[in-house]
Amino acid sequence: MADQTKTGESATNDERAQRRARRQALIDAGVNPYPITSEVTAHAAQLERDYASLPEGEDTQDVVSVAGRIRALRRQGKAAFIVLEDVTGQIQLFCRVNDLGEEGWGLLRQLDLGDIIDATGRVLRTRRGQLSVAPTKLVLLSKSLRPLPEKFHGLTDREMRYRQRYVDLIMNPEVRDVFRRRSQIVSLIRRHMEADGYMEVETPMMHAIMGGANAKPFVTHFNALDRNFYLRIATELPLKRLLVGGMERVFEIGRQFRNEGMDLTHNPEFTTMEAYCAYSDLDGMKRLSEGLFKAIAREVCGCEEGHEAIVYQGQRVDMSGTWHSVPLSEVASQAVGEHVGMDTPIEHLRELCRVNGIEAEDGWGAGKLLFELYDELGESTLVNPTFVCDYPEEVSPLAKRKADDPRLTDRFELVICGHEYANAFTELNDPVDQAGRFAEQVAAKGMGDDEAMGYDYDYVRALEYGMPPAGGIGYGIDRMIMLFCDQPAIRDVLLFPQMKPEAVTRADIASQLPEKTDNTAASADAIADDAESGAAQEAASRPAAPPLSAGLTREQALELLRRHNKDPFHIQHAETLEGLMRHYAEKYDPANVEFWGQVGLLHDLDWEESQDPAQHTVRAGELIEAEGGTPELVRAIQTHNSDNNPELPKPETKMERVLYAADELSGLIQAAAKMRPSGSVADMPAKSLKKKFKDKRFAAGCDRDVIRHGAELNDMELDDLLAEVLDAMKAIAPIGDIYAKGEAAE
């Protein structure tokens, strides 16, 4: 596999060299491969419409200029056929030497797939029925130096598609369609809001005080003021200040920034639309939501009025009629199989959480416990649009309390297909109550909640002047795009989703640089150093290592493990790590699956007998070498304990970094699985694992700092690591489940 990859890269580099040579030849011949101007008088789709009735084999005298990228090129004697693609579609160029002349035909011989050209000529339809332009003039507009990939589609290329979105857009017309529809949806939202009397406004991106939502912010330093500011996590508080100022209906579409994980429905940088309407309430926000979503279904998805139904990821979603409203407690009750509510004894709510694998903190009240039951168990059961109402005040610091039960708030979340699409309040406008809620948030921050809000003195002061009763709502625009474009992941609807940094080698940089420039220019080495690439780049450019030898068979390794470990739990843990390492070896190093497996199997060989963190793996190394194991096997195992013994080697190779991350995290996953009714990882959602990770009191023996460092070692976001190892645990089941039951028995 490695040889095939190298061969493919070598062929690509050879092709790039040939294209650079053709570029230089054009320049030497006086042809500018990147001219300043071009002329376009027609597009492919327009020509197809205008000449739909043109008979086969008939020419016209109509001269047009088209421009686009060459997607196919076939030379046939004194004729050539080019498929030209523009923003609207494809059109054929029927090139003939007599039409183009010597200069144009010479240029045609220098063209490559991917080049962008301008063609001017008459419109005709060939005898085979293909609408074409017969050019009398060709102009090269942009020489493509990098060949287009033969295949650039599907899950296997997903990360490359996100990172090189420009290639994704070239190769996959359906991707371009998604982003056309995104633009159409955002435009429709603006028109819908303006037609309803709302005014679009803009509020600051940087806030001195974190507020408007519970989330972890990005922090930046404002040099002029010499203090830290937060990139906004919500637009709520500035927009409600405008209601105080007399603007009755306002909305803002803009980016929010939350320094949290990335998964199928979350990106640290995302788009929302928040709207606030004076003299309205929660019912007003429900009607706004129904009207907006139905309008998108009709205009973008082609639904008929009164029959607004779409399909999302195989599920039929019926948006017609009046949407169902249901109290949060009712959804939680259906999920647990009995009636629960704010009057349910707290200890019983805690027991329901425990039975359902939800770890409850000591300080949680009935509202928070009830919310967790809904959030973990009930939300995912809702498919058709549902307004989940009556949220506990404990989890709604900015919403107005309900008049008939102050323990609840006048709030709803719009849930479709198990995901939240909007969050709405009857807005809190009592300044004294708001000040008290802010004070509670500050207290939570003091107890370690880094997502709690700060105390916003100015906002309370604004409320003291009087804010009219109002309804407010926030929509996740990216999730709306996912829904109406039937896309499974948020990255599929973001042109440039956040990605981990790419390792670029010095050779990669050198391949792009000209031989000389007009002014002083940095070398490839200087550029690489400036980018602080260093060791990661060098590692990426190293040749593949030869296959590794453990020196032991799997049977010998297992017998050695059992000789020094009598506790079934330790053996089960070793077999789980073996399964995980084999799983990852298939992905990263298929030539060394057996070696990776033995590293996992023997990584804790000496723990049961020594129980000494500082000397852990030292004795294991001696035992393995005495049995005939190789130094490479010993080294790989010892790296995972280098935090406790600085004399041991640190994890450097991919295998060693995977072992470091998977060992500690697998323990947390199994502890979480033990809490579930099934006792299995198979039905554990990633969201549940993330909550367990954040709760420092859960499985306190699992070192969160080690897991975080494991994510860093593997160049991964923490949430990505949690989700990936959880998926790996599911993939190797039932080994992991046996381990969970063994831990439970202990």
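(the above was protein one; protein two follows)
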Amino acid sequence: MLASPWRARRRGSCLEALPRAGRCCARLAGVAFALALAVSPGLAFAQAEALLDEGKSLMKKGKVAEACPKLEESYRLSPRSATLLALAMCHEKQGKVATAWSEYIDLGAAARKEGNKRLEADAKARGAKLELSLPRLTLSVPRAAAIEGLEVTLDGAPVDGALWGQARPIDPGQHKVSASAPGRKPWEKSVTIKRGERKTVAVPALAKDASAAAQPAPAAEAPASAAPEKGSAGAGDGAAEPGKGAAGAGRGAAAPAAPEKGAVAAAPGKGAAGPGKGAAGPGKAAAGPEPDAPPAAPPAAEEQEPSSGSSPRHTGSFVIQAGVAGGALIGLMDSGSFGDLSAYSYSYNIPEGELIAPCDDEVCHASFDPAIGPFAGGEAFIGVALSEDLHLGARVLGGYRFGGGYLAVGGPSVSMRLGRLWLGLSGLVGPVAQQAKVTGIKGEIPSEVVHLNYGRSEVAVNAREGSLPESALVQTLAFGGSVDVSLVLADLPSAGWTSGALLLSVSPTIMKGLDGWVFAAPASLGYRFY
């Protein structure tokens, strides 16, 4: 009796202590969680720093294959510009130039946000250097192949339809292009691309999958109360049919006037067990088609897949380039004619004395100073693609020279692509003219009297002062060639007629005229359709 109150108080104190202990534990848990949150970033940073140092050390030893994954993990744990720079340099050394180029772009953007102009400039310079050697792959999807539900993947990653037909940077090496669509056979192709190379993979029209089309739709089960159709088990004109029943329930079984029709059950023609139209009969069995069902269509012939090598730049396609051109035209044509020279005469010695001979275009010619001036016009190339990187055809260049004159030349040309550059050679022939200062007129001395004229083969014409024009248009037929260097400003291959590239070209040209030399330094901006 005395212990009961004490035990009661003790139990009460314990019950009162439990909430206090719970609150204490909750506080301790909260403090531990806060400490964990505070310590976790520090641990992640320390781990990222260790991985960064380890990755840099491996890079110095030339072990880039081991270094790059560690730098990737370091950047994942702590995304910093210094880590991204090391990672981009590692991928560049590893040969993954497209990945490194993309990382340099991201680094430039991050440095710009941080206000680090030196790092931003360094990232831009490194990215621009890599851009010239980036491989580019174009996934071309012709209109006939772009069916509903088509999915194109590159190395397992889906390629958005907006990017079809566009050249995209890609790392050198082997890649797999796949295409699939509902009800069609899947297609895939492996392509190997080298540094600085451009390639196009055309996705063909996917062939129909006959096995998928041949699968029948599940038949709906007939309800138990429904009358069975003809051809089902016991569904002939006999046993289960109420009108012509096997138990004598037909039209003749109860009608005394026509007893012959009541004996249908025993007749082999339409009986329950008869071989005619009964359950086991071969006529209209359960597996047979219904009389009203349309005949089954023959299997559709599989579509022929077009050649996967087809490309907007495929071999044998026509190539057309057109553009505007301008530059400098230098003429070193020191002699020629400026029109009618019959108004002039000249004299030379003959055995009988001095002969005054009239001028004409056969024996007299004018002399000119060198002339230089700008010209503007256009250029064009028409040919055929022997391959994606080799074009053969003809090139023409023409323009007007400011101050008087013109250039109109053309001839065979060949172009070869090296990365983002097209290099070409052209043989040229055509007329060239320029307005130049007239310095005088000279007449020809016959060879048989050269010895009487102090060994001279020509002599100056005695032109009256002021009778010579200050300048005249001198023209000649010139032969020569040019070296063409073109930079691809934009590569735009596609399945349409606009497939091609925007080119900036310079074409140093040298030509030998019938009288003197001609030099031209044209630059052009044009679009090459292929």
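Reviewer note on protein two: The CA atoms of residues 352 and 452 lie 11 Å apart.
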